[in-house]
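for the recovery benchmark. tokens below, seq after
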């Protein structure tokens, strides 16, 4: 039976880089689920929030891009590649050279150096940078099957999915294996215990988080299972399916209790900025 203790006993010399690709803002305390009893007592927050992508460099398995962040076009165009309809609702902004391709270049890497691309989910701010990689990489794009289905539904656009961002890519689904408590669906991404994809549904149907078994301690990339530390610490699910999001948070909180030294990086936390280095400096 697999256990996190046994995985963490054999960490991997991974390198993790955080790409800060821009900022996003939506009205209405978007980070907190309205069905939460605590929602009304939360102060209204009008700040723009960071949008990240991550690069994991594995000593043997190559370069893995986790999410793509905002497209470089946001540095020039108000609506970037969101289109005017969604671009007015999800206001994003960026500066030149913040996009993932530029961030990779700062590490001496080109899109062709990517071996794998993995998307936490398909809401517009996560695959927005993908079109910049089109035709420049043969890396497959991993997406949860349930997420791919949600993003191809009739009214997907109104749920924040822009299908065209994925055009021209080979999409692969995760093959989850046995559960590793407290999580039901876990995939050992490289098959060597170095990086795990964990199904964390709620914010979206096929949302996943990623756990890196790094040498100086594991790092949990929540993505939008917890936009901010406040989601996790105050137990307030993100927007999306309230019950599923709450169940996911309960599991992550249980995991955190078991491994109190676990480092967390939240997907859009303005209060966490400055707590970890940004590329070209590695986090680990
Ligand atoms: Zn999202």
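predicted aa per position
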């Amino acid at each position: 039976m697999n256990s996190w203790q046994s995985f963490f006993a054999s960490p991997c010399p991974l390198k993790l880089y955080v790409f800060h690709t821009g900022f996003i803002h939506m009205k209405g305390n978007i980070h907190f689920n309205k069905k939460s009893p605590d929602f009304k007592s939360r102060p209204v927050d009008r700040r723009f929030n960071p949008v990240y992508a991550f690069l994991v460099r594995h000593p043997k398995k190559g370069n893995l891009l986790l999410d793509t962040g905002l497209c470089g076009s946001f540095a020039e165009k108000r609506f970037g590649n969101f289109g005017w309809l969604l671009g007015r609702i999800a206001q994003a902004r960026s500066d030149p050279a913040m996009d993932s391709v530029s961030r990779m270049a700062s590490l001496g890497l080109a899109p062709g150096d990517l071996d794998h691309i993995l998307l936490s989910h398909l809401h517009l701010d996560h695959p927005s940078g993908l079109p910049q990689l089109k035709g420049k990489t043969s890396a497959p794009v991993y997406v949860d099957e349930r997420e791919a289905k949600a993003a191809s539904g009739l009214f997907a656009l109104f749920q924040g999915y822009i299908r065209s961002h994925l055009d021209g890519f080979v999409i692969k689904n995760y093959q989850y294996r046995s559960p590793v408590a407290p999580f039901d669906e876990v995939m050992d991404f490289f098959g060597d215990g170095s990086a795990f994809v964990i199904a964390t549904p709620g914010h979206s149907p096929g949302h996943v988080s990623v756990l890196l078994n790094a040498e100086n301690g594991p790092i949990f990339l929540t993505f939008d299972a917890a936009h901010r530390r406040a989601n996790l610490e105050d137990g307030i699910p993100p927007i999306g399916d309230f019950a599923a999001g709450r169940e996911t948070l309960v599991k992550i909180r249980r995991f955190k209790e078991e491994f109190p030294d676990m480092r967390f990086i939240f997907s859009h936390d303005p209060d966490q900025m400055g707590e970890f280095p940004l590329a070209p400096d590695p986090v680990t």
